[in-house]
Design a protein that fits this description.
This protein is α+β, with helices and mostly antiparallel strands and about 200 residues long. The protein has 4 helices and 12 strands. The chain has one domain.
């Protein structure tokens, strides 16, 4: 399953963030043990920097993710997770025998230029060397936000996307009922939280 991790890392590094998210009151726990209450800029995920402001200050400060142990906002809690030597703050979803985290990535619609090679008409000499072109979204590449789940179970880490969701039955094969239900289609990618909560019971 470790072969899945490079894909996860590449996906994080090519993610696009369009919006300027607001600042909200939160807490940052640094690795040196200090805890800071401040205004944190909300984000879909934190893969390199956390931007914050001290209380009653307009100065923007940047902290590297590798200096942070955890982060809390009014809406989510994030933990520092080391993935093949790279550190990310991932959103904490379920804690137990199996821990579930997620990372949300805003995806830019991929614009693909298609060239249609129609036969050129002799009477349109001025267009002789031109090709008809149009731009469209490629397949289902536009999803708005892509979610990647990270599961830590039995001291191993796995990245799960919609594409490799069925691998989850192998990861959780010590729970026969869940593994069977996944293989038989009773669960889908959107049921990840329910799956892990059931597994932890």
């Amino acid at each position: 399953m470790k072969a899945l991790l490079p894909i996860f890392l590449i996906t994080l590094k090519i993610s696009f963030v369009f919006a300027q998210f607001p600042f909200e009151k939160g807490q940052i726990q640094f690795k040196d043990g200090s805890v800071l209450t401040c205004q944190i800029q909300l984000a879909l995920g934190y893969d390199s920097l956390v931007i914050y402001k001290l209380v009653n200050s307009s100065e923007v400060i940047k902290a590297k993710v590798n200096k942070i142990r955890s982060l809390s906002t009014p809406y989510n809690n994030f933990d520092n997770i080391n993935i093949d030597g790279s550190e990310f703050l991932l959103r904490r979803l379920v804690i137990g025998k199996a821990n579930l985290y997620s990372h949300s990535i805003e995806i830019r619609p991929e614009q693909v230029v298609h060239e249609s090679k129609e036969k050129e008409k002799a009477e349109s000499k001025k267009n002789k060397d031109k090709k008809n072109k149009h731009i469209e979204l490629k397949g289902s590449s536009w999803r708005g936000v892509q979610i990647i789940y990270v599961i830590i179970v039995n001291e191993s880490l796995y990245a799960i996307t919609e594409e490799n969701f069925m691998d989850l039955s192998k990861i959780l094969n010590d729970h026969e009922t869940i593994a069977k239900d996944i293989n038989e289609g009773a669960y889908s990618f959107k049921d990840m939280i329910q799956i892990i909560e059931t597994y932890n019971k």
